[in-house]
Amino acid sequence: MLSRKMQPQDIPEVAAIEQDANQFPWSIKNFEDCLKAGHQSRVFFNEATEMLGYTIIQKVVDEAHLLNICVKPSVQGQGFGREILNYVVEFSKNSALVLIVLEVRSSNQRAQTLYLQAGFNEMSVRHNYYPAKQGREDAVLMGLDLSFLV
Ligand SMILES: CC(C)(COP(=O)(O)OP(=O)(O)OC[C@H]1O[C@@H](n2cnc3c(N)ncnc32)[C@H](O)[C@@H]1OP(=O)(O)O)[C@@H](O)C(=O)NCCC(=O)NCCS
Hints:
The protein is of the alpha+beta class. It has one domain (2-149): Gcn5-related N-acetyltransferase (GNAT) (Aminopeptidase). The protein is 30% helix and 38% strand. The protein is built from four helices and seven strands, in the order βααβββαβαββ. The protein has helices at 11-21, 28-37, 80-94, 109-117; strands spanning 2-5, 40-45, 51-60, 63-71, 99-105, 121-131, 136-145. A seven-stranded mixed sheet has the order 1-2-3-4-5-7-6, sandwiched between helices. The longest helix has 15 residues, at 80-94. The radius of gyration is 15 Å and the shape is globular. The relative contact order is 0.14. The mean pLDDT is 96. Coenzyme A (COA) is lined by residues 21-22, 69-71, 76-82, 102, 104, 108, 110-111, 113-114, 117. Coenzyme A (COA) binds at residues 21-22, 69-71, 76-82, 102, 104, 108, 110-111, 113-114, 117.
């Protein structure tokens, strides 16, 4: 997979993937705000320059907060999510960050399995954190400790 920094002109395509892949998608403004804030925002492509996915990482002191990771639905289940997560881990290590943290919906077993396989641990649960189709849903807070590397 090829990758490069997300540019403002990528946002319409990114937001379209986001819309297809999530029940509660980020808005265009959410992505614009991330670029303005200077968060590490990266888009991933195949050789035919088809956009496959993206990720957004916020550095908070010596931590990486994984704000978004997404693979286009038509190409999910082919290892791209794992590759993008590997990028997140490598970027964090190279930036001397000591912890990667993220929140994931308790119903999102697919993403949780991906994180657990990559060595993340469940740190805590934020009750009723997300809006859901019916009522609200818990967020599972997960972390990957990188401190032994620095
Ligand atoms: C979560 C997501 C990024 C995974 O990307 P992906 O490219 O489909 O995942 P991969 O093909 O790399 O699979 C990696 C692992 O995820 C898990 N996984 C993938 N597809 C799965 C499925 N249909 N059911 C259960 N687990 C699945 C498996 O553990 C898999 O490892 P394995 O192939 O060794 O069994 C993708 O499903 C996605 O974009 N979802 C919508 C957005 C989202 O939920 N983002 C995370 C928010 S916290």
